[in-house]
Amino acid sequence: MKIAFDYQIFSQQSYGGISRYYQRLASEFLLLGEEIKVFSGLHKNNYLQSLPKTALSGFRLRKFPPKTTKFIMRSNQYITRNQINKWRPDILHETYYQTYSPFQKKIPIVVTVYDMIHELYPNEFPKNNLISKRKRDACLRSSQIISISHNTKKDLIKFFDIPPEKITVVHLACDINLKHGIDISEKLIYSKPFLLFVGGRGGYKNFNSLLEAVSISNRLNRQFDIVAFGGGGFSSKENALIRSLGFKKEQVKQVGGDDSVLASLYQSASAFVYPSLYEGFGIPPLEAMLNECPVISSNSSSIPEVVGEAGEYFNPEDVESLSLAIENVVFDQNRIIALKSEGLKRINAFSWQKCAQETLNVYNKIII
Fold this sequence. Notes:
Elements: E1 2-5, H1 8-12, H2 17-31, E2 35-43, E3 56-60, H3 69-87, E4 91-94, E5 109-113, H4 117-120, H5 131-141, E6 144-147, H6 150-160, E7 167-169, E8 194-198, H7 207-215, H8 218-223, E9 225-229, H9 236-244, E10 252-255, H10 259-268, E11 271-274, H11 284-290, E12 295-298, H12 303-307, E13 311-314, H13 319-330, H14 333-346, H15 352-366
Parallel strand pairs: 1-2, 1-4, 2-3, 4-5, 5-6, 6-7, 8-9, 8-11, 9-10, 11-12, 12-13
Helix pairs in contact: 2-15, 7-13, 11-14
């Protein structure tokens, strides 16, 4: 089967979950003997460097010159349209959302929907944001839609009125290499036990609730630090909130770095806390399980679908519920052992090999 991926996400992300998803799919397809071509045009993505040159059609820039992104995207659309039409793939998997396809109509198109954040939380985005409209248009004209969770499929049907039979759920996975290559001497060492938060912190990510949950518990506040990985440095508002809640200096830290740093944090943390109000899937809990870090998780949206029995759940809109859930884990050695054990069992339900095979099954349904 000849499978084409378009340029869209690779022109937008140097790193990121969506572009990593397509890089992992492409890698697995190659192992399965499929013919793959990523028509990336001019791009800035780092993950594509791991693919063989025969699977790529494009050129990587370390970064785009200022104010050129829109121009490069339009140029890529024109250039890759001709390249894809000439290659004549059996399937075109569009890597993000656009209102219309510039490619031949006879090529079956698949689009993956990652979440419905723009529809559920419109006030968190600029009024002129067009993602929701483009997502809807891409879904309506596609031959088949892949949803990364059953919860996202339910929301797709609700917001876009798409027939259920047009949507197939294919779960994601996390990267196995996170667990390997960490020398014990290179682990990040902190003077106190810490709770780990990973990723963006604003809005529905609900980081502020974690701060409040720790601050209202004398035991947690006295004995634990909080480490936030990624998401950029704390804003002035976040620093003001941290001070107002009575945290000591350096008790709440922000850390950046690569996968090895993240793996070290998972392996060193007392627990990973996931207070998000909404996720389309949620890879960080899987990463925590893989690294034998107990998961304390929100009970909302798709998260229980991913975490299963391997998490201590709480209501993300109830700070006391979150505080109690943390206490139930970090002060109970038996619960810690149980969550680590359940996590190692749960992670076996998710793999990129499985994701790739189920994606191929979707392609095979619609090949003309």
